[in-house]
Amino acid sequence: MYNVNKLIDYHILKSNKAYFNLSQDELINISVAKGEGDLAKNGALSINTGKYTGRSPKDRFIVDEPLVHDYINWNNTNQPTSSYKFERLFDKAINYINDKEIFIFEGYVGSDSNYRMPIRVVNEFAYQNLFAQQMFIKPKEEERGSIKPEFTVIALPNLMSNPKVDGTNSEAFVIISFEKKIVLIGGTKYSGEIKKSIFTIMNYLLPFKDVLPMHCSANVGENNDVALFFGLSGTGKTTLSADENRRLIGDDEHGWTDNGIFNFEGGCYAKCINLSHKKEPQIFNAIKRGAILENVVIDKDTKEPDYDNDKYTENTRAAFPVEHIEEAILEGEGGIPNTIIFLTADATGVLPPISKLTKEQAMYHFMSGYTSKLAGTERGIVEPKATFSSCFGEPFMLLKPQVYAKILGEKIEKYNTNVFLVNTGWTGGSYGEGNRMKLEYTRAMVKAALIGELDNIKYIKDPIFNLSIPTECKNVPKDILDPSSTWGNTEEYFQKARELAKAFIQNFEKFSTVSDDIRNVNPKIFSKAI
Ligand SMILES: Nc1ncnc2c1ncn2[C@@H]1O[C@H](COP(=O)(O)OP(=O)(O)O)[C@@H](O)[C@H]1O
Ligand SMILES: C=C(OP(=O)(O)O)C(=O)O
Ligand SMILES: [Mn+2]
Question: Was domain 4-36+54-209 assigned CATH 3.40.449.10?
Fold first, then answer.
């Protein structure tokens, strides 16, 4: 095996066309001068990513190497490729950048100094290098130059693979090699691939150090009470963690140690479709100089962003450092979580907008990860598509879901953490018939849960899923709390609920070794009450 850092040092770093840790302004100026992007009226750098406007999971591969072979949960999401194929693409990449200007960011992922990992990101686009700088953790002045990267991401969107020769699925590829400690990205300009591949690496490494890596956002209240919001893409992690009454810790990726939680990142990556100052003031205000807007339509003359326009994609994005969010916790750390919220965007409109989970239910729903893939978040998804995404982040979890679930279960038990399931998806009918839950109501329910207003009130049990539904919640109409009463036709509701219940049961069959108390959470399709 060759020494990757030496190889990269030789090929890339010795090049007089490599720019290291340029400042925000230098990268913005270069990006504009090169015609990569344009400045919007609010000061953000606006760019378009072309064909790929969301993640492309079918193009993501893990090199099947002895170091990781026995640990990776190989499946349709964690697809293997060979060292041979990786090395060929790597050589292609090295040849490709030989005569190009490249931009290099060196910094960290992980704000807890005990677990942080030094990384290097090599980009052909200045705007993507700015993305890396804003999303990861910038080195302090005195650390610059002395960073010894453990992993290197090489992102070359204009380098296309040839599926027939390279064994890829399309021209795009995201390939992670744990032995070479390299992530190779080509064919796609969607910047989310850069941050999510580093996240995926952390998710593989941290359980070996007894740290639970989580696909969740986090914030903290006045009494230092920490809340986590787990959820697949588009379910509301970023939106709901930006809360004027609480301080943001991070919007997407955290680790949980014996001391508390820590953000992996130093920035946020917010969706901006239909963004308004009224509904999401903190995110709206964060989009200023230093932020990068991806695939947002900008008026040609006034340069005003049109957040309501989905001409390029529904998955429009803004990337910015956490410093842009008012009152954010810049050190990225918080105490032991008091409340956990599982976000599900249920496109069937069956699950209640909020329900309280027992410990067993929490484990069951964490392993099941029922939600929908939302339009634009993955290549090929144009409308909500029901999915079971274990740990609410299956595309990023390389180990078996049971590994993560076991650590989470131990922590919930030990700290007696409250867990709620929140449906930010549909109500009053399935997608197409009903409506998406109003953000205003979800915010009110989350608030009530976090300040303890749902602790000592009356709950009812839904007959199929056995979920505990509060009978009242401040600022939320009573009649939306029980989903069966929001559908025009109750029989249709129960019909759909039984279908969903069957899907839950079927999905859970894959967990063959799970204990009976968790398996018994399975919904009861033939409940007498229906
Ligand atoms: N009830 C709701 N709860 C949360 N988000 C909602 C709701 N209704 C609509 N949305 C919209 O859904 C999107 C959620 O996306 P985001 O917060 O970026 O999710 P994530 O960070 O989990 O990927 C935002 O555009 C938000 O405005
Ligand atoms: C960047 C992403 O994360 P999220 O949508 O969870 O914010 C993504 O899934 O591409
Ligand atoms: Mn997000």
Answer: yes
pLDDT tens digit sequence for 468-509: 999 999 999 999 999 999 999 999 999 999 999 999 999 999
> Which residues, other chains included, contact 374 with Cβ-Cβ below 8 Å and sequence gap of 6+?
233, 234, 235, 314, 345, 381, 384
Is the ipTM higher than 0.90? The answer is yes
CA of 270 to the centre of ligand 3 (A): 5
Q: How far is CA 193 from the centre of its chain?
A: 11
Any idea which fold 212-265+332-519 has?
Answer: Phosphoenolpyruvate Carboxykinase; domain 3 (3.90.228)
pLDDT digits (tens, 9 = 90+) for 406-453: 999 999 999 999 999 999 999 999 999 999 999 999 999 999 999 999
Residue span(s) of the chain under CATH 3.90.228.20 come to: 212-265+332-519
Question: Which residues belong to CATH 3.40.449.10 in the chain?
Answer: 4-36+54-209
Question: Of ligand 1's atoms, which has the minimum distance to the CA of residue 231?
Answer: 22
Q: 268-324 maps to which CATH number?
A: 2.170.8.10
Best CA proximity match to 21, nearest among 83, 123, 104: 104
At 213, give phi and psi (nearest 5°).
-85, 140
User: Is 502 considered catalytic here?
Assistant: no
pTM: 0.96
Q: Looking at 31, 49, 200, 238, which residue is catalytic?
A: 238
The C-alpha angle 82, 83, 88, rounded to 5 degrees, equals 105
In the reported structure, the alpha carbon of residue 8 is separated from the centroid of ligand 3 by a whole-number distance in angstroms of 32
The catalytically annotated residue of 166, 251, 252, 462 is 252
